[in-house]
Amino acid sequence: MTKYKPLKEKEAIEYVKGIEGLFDDDAELSCNEIGDGNLNLVFHITDQNSGMGVVIKQALDHVRIADDWPLTKERVKFEYTAMKIQDELTDGMVPKVYKYDDEMALIVMEDLSSMKVMRKGLISGIKYPHFAEQISTFLSKTLFYTSDLYMAPKEKKERVKNFINPELCDITEVLVFTDPYFDAESNNINPELRPYLEKEFWRKSELRKEVTVLKEKFMTRAQALIHGDLHTGSIFIDQKTLKVFDTEFAFYGPSGFDIGAVIGNLILNYASWSGKEVSTEFKADYREYLLDTIEDIWNKFEEKFRKFWDQEAHETTKAVKGYQDYYLKQLLQDSIGMGGCKTMRRCIGMAHVEDLDGIENLSERARAQIFALKLGEIMVTRRKRLATITDFIKIVRDLTAWEDTTNM
Ligand SMILES: Nc1ncnc2c1ncn2[C@@H]1O[C@H](COP(=O)(O)OP(=O)(O)O)[C@@H](O)[C@H]1O
Ligand SMILES: CSC[C@H]1O[C@H](OP(=O)(O)O)[C@H](O)[C@@H]1O
């Protein structure tokens, strides 16, 4: 019989006390359940004497925000296994793991609460000058070294098999690529946005077709071991360091889904300033920072990825003239397209983001949501015309100039 049960705060304390060498014998432990995500329990346990802390992340047997949606606890295994691989490849850009307990469906890990969840930092208008450098390192290393460009074919296929993660992929297939594009029951719709959806957005058949093309790529392209949910709420950051967490959606999928998740979430923050009471100068300056960051992320990613390729790809791959340029152009287009889907789902689908939902006035929120939807739409429909990241930045600027002159 399995010993699994969801922990209560007191039990979480007892659990960590049982891990040898983690806390001093005289530790005075206190615990708070701090989970603010959609799926799991998260306990923050600290020693009042030393200040040392740890975090326990435990899976429930259902979706935390929808208790009639059952979900496999096996997701913790995917999270732990992917974290180990990412840790080795990136030299520690993920939380340290102190213990993985398969039966209890939990991970005890490094306490990162001295850092900030990046989404919250962006909402407060904080700039992170090293972010592009850091996240491009994470992306280039994880997406190159887990792909067929580097791995031996049999070893890679074994990995693909071990990372078949159907239930978590199903969430993405439904909530990112399907439901937002019609009046689905699972959607979560601002009433002030509904007229735009009914009169315009849900009638865009070309958009829905192109989203379905990207969905098929998500479902079938085992290009690299991707994080699978790399939004700005899955990143802890301060002015020096970055850590990526919440890896339970990991599987072998299209690399552009991770790059797109980062870009799409910066675009969501970009759109959110439409609905906020800040000065025109602040808004323009912060938006420039976000666009510069997106441009830097791609350019630094590309430079690093090409370097790994030139140094460490299979000789037979290296010998094929023009293939590297082809691969990177496809990847740029996939990234922008997938990023567009990630942008749109957060305006209509079940799970929103605080960048937009923090705008209390519903008509102001709808204004920012419509801007985000228009940005998401062009990311999907114009992606195949993009040759460089600068082409993308230009279309964002053009749409922004248009938004500034209209009452969307
Ligand atoms: N290692 C950690 N250190 C400190 N806080 C954490 C850590 N991991 C998670 N958290 C907190 O718990 C929240 C939910 O964690 P997350 O892994 O995103 O869970 P879920 O999968 O339910 O979304 C995060 O937003 C963060 O505030
Ligand atoms: C019903 S799960 C919805 C949503 O939640 C996940 O995000 P997070 O774990 O960071 O809260 C993921 O994006 C899912 O699509």
Automatic annotation (TrEMBL):
<dbReference type="GO" id="GO:0046522">
    <property type="term" value="F:S-methyl-5-thioribose kinase activity"/>
</dbReference>
<dbReference type="Pfam" id="PF01636">
    <property type="entry name" value="APH"/>
</dbReference>
<keyword id="KW-0808">Transferase</keyword>
<feature type="binding site">
    <location>
        <position position="345"/>
    </location>
    <ligand>
        <name>substrate</name>
    </ligand>
</feature>
<dbReference type="InterPro" id="IPR002575">
    <property type="entry name" value="Aminoglycoside_PTrfase"/>
</dbReference>
<dbReference type="InterPro" id="IPR009212">
    <property type="entry name" value="Methylthioribose_kinase"/>
</dbReference>
<comment type="similarity">
    <text>Belongs to the methylthioribose kinase family.</text>
</comment>
<feature type="binding site">
    <location>
        <position position="229"/>
    </location>
    <ligand>
        <name>substrate</name>
    </ligand>
</feature>
<keyword id="KW-0028">Amino-acid biosynthesis</keyword>
<comment type="function">
    <text>Catalyzes the phosphorylation of methylthioribose into methylthioribose-1-phosphate.</text>
</comment>
<keyword id="KW-0547">Nucleotide-binding</keyword>
<protein>
    <recommendedName>
        <fullName>Methylthioribose kinase</fullName>
        <ecNumber>2.7.1.100</ecNumber>
    </recommendedName>
</protein>
<keyword id="KW-0486">Methionine biosynthesis</keyword>
<keyword id="KW-0418">Kinase</keyword>
<feature type="binding site">
    <location>
        <position position="40"/>
    </location>
    <ligand>
        <name>ATP</name>
    </ligand>
</feature>
<keyword id="KW-0067">ATP-binding</keyword>
<feature type="binding site">
    <location>
        <begin position="110"/>
        <end position="112"/>
    </location>
    <ligand>
        <name>ATP</name>
    </ligand>
</feature>
<comment type="subunit">
    <text>Homodimer.</text>
</comment>
<feature type="domain" description="Aminoglycoside phosphotransferase">
    <location>
        <begin position="32"/>
        <end position="286"/>
    </location>
</feature>
<dbReference type="GO" id="GO:0019509">
    <property type="term" value="P:L-methionine salvage from methylthioadenosine"/>
</dbReference>
<comment type="pathway">
    <text>Amino-acid biosynthesis; L-methionine biosynthesis via salvage pathway; S-methyl-5-thio-alpha-D-ribose 1-phosphate from S-methyl-5'-thioadenosine (hydrolase route): step 2/2.</text>
</comment>
<dbReference type="InterPro" id="IPR011009">
    <property type="entry name" value="Kinase-like_dom_sf"/>
</dbReference>
<feature type="binding site">
    <location>
        <position position="57"/>
    </location>
    <ligand>
        <name>ATP</name>
    </ligand>
</feature>
<dbReference type="GO" id="GO:0005524">
    <property type="term" value="F:ATP binding"/>
</dbReference>
